[in-house]
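Recall that a protein's primary structure is simply its ordered list of amino acids. Everything else, from secondary elements to tertiary packing, is in principle encoded there. The following example makes that idea concrete.
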Amino acid sequence: MNIIKAVLFDLDGTLLNRDASVKVFIEKQYQRQNKWLNHIQKDKYTSRFIELDNRGYVWKDKVYQQLVDEFDITGLTWEELLQDYISQFKDSCVPFSNLISTLEALKNNNIVLGMITNGKGKFQMDNVKALGIEKYFKTILISEWEGMKKPEPQIFQKALKQLNVLPSESIFVGDHPEKDVRAAQNVGMEGVWKQDYQWNNVKADFIVDDLEEVPLIIDKLSNYNIING
């Protein structure tokens, strides 16, 4: 096994606490558009959005069409609500704990960093910038801009090529058992699962609850390589 030279991350649910961010965003949206939404109780509007959003797996056009219909929203179209989401979400981005300190620790360790995320190009990049982490990454691949997405092996291979590392010199950290962990393992990387309550019994090379555990994994693998070199 080779020395680890690169760490690649997923974005939503791994670096960005999407559940917390959505909660902050939808409450702000309710205040912003209160003139059109005040016939709906705030907690009803927010909890229904969260439910329909299904942790990001449902397109927001569907979500807002449903909300407008169910809550009988007039004077404001679903397209306008969607546009508000696209342009304003970045102001509600909540990072997971120890995000910056983890990236700093990896960088100081001469580890090269990459990111692979599914989603809309500008929207995801806005969120990366809002978290203040763009400068840490040598490559950031977003599925819309790449024309391919996780779990397809090609997007992982492209990132590794851009980082100039072998799969065996890299680890991938993500919250999705199939699209992140298994997909990374399929191209020959170590798959690290960032724990998420939605799944259990996930088969991963390593499991972390907090990002600060990632540099410790690299230490562990480096020591293993020295001893078993």
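The beta strands are 6-9, 112-117, 139-142, 170-174, 190-194, 206-208. The first strand starts at residue 6 and ends at 9.
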